[in-house]
TrEMBL record:
Name under which the protein is recorded: U-box domain-containing protein 15-like
UniProt feature coiled coil, ranges: none
SUPFAM superfamilies to which the protein is assigned, alphabetical: ARM repeat (SSF48371)
Organism for this UniProt entry: Nicotiana tabacum (Common tobacco)
Pfam family, one: ARM_PUB
Gene that specifies this protein: LOC107804235
Keyword Repeat among UniProt keywords: yes
Residue ranges of ARM repeats: 17-54
Amino acid sequence: MLSKENPENRTSIVNGGGIPPLVQLLSYPDSRIQEHAVTTLLNLSIDETNKRLISEEKPIPSIIEILKNGNLGAKENSAAALFSLSMMDENKQTIGSFNGTPPLIDLLINGTIRGKKDVITALFNLCFIEQNVSLATKAGIVAPLFQLLENKNLDMVDEALSIQLLIATHQDGRQEMGKLSFIETLVNLIRDGTPKNKEFTVAMLHRLSLHNSNLMLAAL
């Protein structure tokens, strides 16, 4: 908790050489210690300089392992840590290469609202790399994003549409999103959504129709 609120404490931990042992604790055979370690690294990564220092210790494989096998709290803090670290382009590649996309998508389906918000932001960052768009599509990202469009109570429609715009650059993603039920949902958002929903939705339909004019006819 010392690392969460106070920038001076974060600086003291880093200057005291705290990052390497914290990364080592990610693999310690005790789930509570793993959770505390990943949470502390998440808090330290608030500072931009620390993101790079943490990344140099190569924590991503261990964070992904906790994301796969930890308790719900540990999984959600791991997702938040990946979101923070994915702000760096080289980490986007690493997270995809170590198969971090499937457990993120699983948490998007099964996590709490807080967890879903961290996951969807992490996935948005990752999908700026074409390799990760392909991996996310193969891992089944389209269906849970569709559910977020349907469930407006989660207040994540804009975030879901933002990722879908990136996925629509990939042929497999377009095929999944080209199904009639998805088009109907987009049309409903144009009619009933917020101004920002409508802006994203029009852009989505335009992108899809560039590759399949029948989709625009279906929307009309």
